[in-house]
Amino acid sequence: MASTHSTIRIMPTGPGHPKRVRSELMRQRLRAAGWFLVPMLVALAIVAGWPLLRTIYFSFTNASLTNLDGAELVGFKNYLSWTVLKSGRVIWSGLLSDPAWWNAVWNTVRFAVLSVALETILGTVVALVLNAEFKGRGLVRAAILIPWAIPTIVSARMWSWMLNDQFGIINDMLMMLGLIDHKIAWTASSDTAMIAVLIVDVWKTTPFMALLILAGLQMIPRDIYEAAAIDGVHPVRTFWRVTLPLVRPALMVAVIFRLLDAMRIFDLIYVLTPNSAQTKTISVLARENLIDFDKFAYGSAQSTMLFLIIALMTILYIWLGKVRFDGGDR
Amino acid sequence: MLHSALRAGLFAGAVFCASVTMAAQLAIVSGDSGNGLAFLQSQLKDFEAKTGNTVKIVPMPPSTSDQFGQYRLWLAAGNADIDVYMTDVIWAPQLSDQFLDLTAAAKDVVKDHFPSIIESQTANGKLVAIPGFTDAPALFYRKDLLEKYGKPVPKTWDEMAATAKEIQDKERAAGAKDLWGLVFQGNAYEGLTCNALEWVKSFGGGQIVEANGDISINNEKAAKALETVKGWVGTISPPGVLAYQEEEARGVWQTGNAVFMRNWPYAYALGNGADSAVKGKFGVSPLPAATTSDKPAATLGGWNFAVSKYSKNPEEAIKLALFLGSKEVQKNRAINQTNLPTIVSLYDDPDVAKAAPIIPQWKDVFMNAVPRPSAPTKVKYNEVSSLFWSAVHDTLSGNGTAADNLEILEAKLTELKGSGW
Fold first, then answer.
1. Alpha carbon distance B261, B137 (integer Å)
2. Which residue in chain B is spatially nearest to A157 when comparing CA positions?
3. Residue B178 sits at the chain A interface (C-beta within 8 Å)
């Protein structure tokens, strides 16, 4: 695929080994680019790097929220430690032996995979529809972004009233249509809590997916479709053979953005089902330990682990999926 | 020209400084539910008129767990923007380091309050907060429906369940499709700890962690209490009750869709409001017990006013806290909000008795009040409470039997306790 990016890229100059040519002008431009990047790097170091390092540091201490300065280093105790009893029995403690932690990991992964899969499929469908020519397309494109534009905390609260079992509109509509025979306690029942969270997240984030995929779709040259149509290729076959391969790079980037976002899910669950063990994710659990339980160090260890998990997932994904963030194929 | 500008600036500065020392700008944070904030605002007007200070209310969500998280963060960060905090009765031992000692400032008024409440707000010999009102829940019942079916106000849980079932079934047959027998607070949060403590205690199952620190929750009576309640969910209580907090329960009740409700006294005044479907149709009584020989239990709640140690105007802030806990405000509170006073003499006050006849009645409820185990478990209380409400919520939603869940709970609490609370 032709690269259409605008970053500085050194092209190979001959058929043999690619030789890097750096003219004085190029060096100058690189230096200038470096200077332009400095403010952003400094800002990132302050708002992201420093808190991250501090969280990692606290995870190796016994800090509590009321006594952050008096924290002492305790090594890996928050992650995993063991004591051998006199009888020879070994008792494990720490994060990696905590069932609540593994429950949260499982919830988070389940939520991330399910929500991103649903959003990708629905987002693709929406993007294909929006990519077609029809009257009022601009209006529809703007309208579909509304769920994404509402702050999550607001939409979560809104949905929690809509999903309320007694005066919620969802139950009312389903009852009227005769789809259910009794009111469902969406956020309370352990069977439906995760479904409720998924519904709201899909509702909210599908527009974002659709937008990214739509941007990818619009990069595909029209003449390929014309050629396919002239050759009499069935539209479904065109989708699988032409559209999907060509939109794949954009799709992969959209999926990873969403996946990383979904792994950190907090606000939606905190509002809808804050204490349900069926939906408690790593972020919710970490907050609980950091603030409610006065176990700041333990919560920091959980946050650090979440960071490591996300970092690992990103690396794996980029490597396995051969994703390139400049839109090209590797 | 420059000179005069400088002088004007200095003058303005001096005026500004003077105004800071004379009339302070205070901020009070409160997460009161119902129309509590509007009431607070009306009382603050008096305070502002008297002292010349201005007070800003910072509203918070009604969930006590949410408030606690935010307050702890603010206090840990040494936030000087908030002067006075409205604190839950259980927070004193956990936040005592961050609040000013009010012992000296309140020495003249302390004797007017119930000694047990003053004690609940004292940690390590320090008076952490001035009591604003106390809280003990009761059973709200629909007088009209009980009369219609000739039922007495239930004294035991079984009687309550039977009455609720009968009325619910008959009323539904008569067309009131959305009617339920009982609503309570079943969401997995601090409120469920309050509800479940009442069930367990009134069945004779102890109070989770006893005053001496012993973990007592794993016993047959406690298990029986939880199994009983589990039987209510989906039969006399809506399945969604497992997501209800106070306001959701009141929503069902106040639209006339419940025969009984377990709630705090604040719902009394609101239930008799102009827009209420149950206005004048309901009464209150102490919560039922397991058998007629058991004693009913009511979890001790209540809110207090504490002064942040980071306040820039501690003296004015202490005045505000004392004002909000004063007899005058508590009386207004009792009359307008049906919040229970912490000042003993107000229970015999004729104005209070006239405006809120339930308050003298509440003295009985209050006699049976049981504290949550926040004093023995100290800074670990939140985790104890969370483990407890999770075990209860699991039981009520059918994840494991009560006996199993309580056994696991005991093991977890023992591990949490370690060598001592």
1. 10
2. B61
3. yes
Report residue B75 as tokens: 């206090």
Q: Which amino acid is present at B57?
A: I
- What distance in Å separates residue B41's CA from the closest CA in chain A? 26
* Contact (CB<8Å) A275/B393: yes
Per-residue pLDDT reduced to its tens digit, B189-221: 899 999 999 999 999 999 999 988 899 999 999
Partner A, chain B 242-261, Cβ-Cβ below 8 Å = 242-244, 248, 251-252, 255, 257
Which residue range is the domain that position B278 belongs to?
A: 138-299+373-417
Q: Is residue A179 part of a domain?
A: yes
- Using the Cβ of A173 and the Cβ atoms of chain B, whether some distance falls under 8 Å is answered with no
What CATH number does the domain containing A204 carry?
Answer: 1.10.3720.10
**A56 three-state secondary structure:** helix
Asked if the Cβ–Cβ distance from A294 to B94 is below 8 Å, we say yes
Rounded to two decimals, the ipTM of the complex is 0.74
Q: Tokens for A17, please give them.
A: 């080994």
Using CA atoms, how far residue B209 sits from B228, B380, B392, B414, in Å, is 21, 12, 15, 11
User: Taking CB atoms and an 8 Å cutoff, what residues of chain A touch B394?
Assistant: 277
Q: What is the mean pLDDT of chain B?
A: 89
pTM over 0.90? The answer is no
- Assess whether B403 and B270 both reside in one domain: yes
Residue with the bigger pLDDT between A235 and B164: it is B164
Q: Are residues B167 and B289 in the same domain?
A: yes
- A218 in contact with chain B, both atoms CB, cutoff 8 A: no
Q: For residue range B234-286, list pLDDT tens digits in order.
A: 999 998 898 888 988 999 999 999 999 999 988 988 999 888 999 999 999 99
Rounded to whole angstroms, the Cα distance separating B299 from B120 reads 13
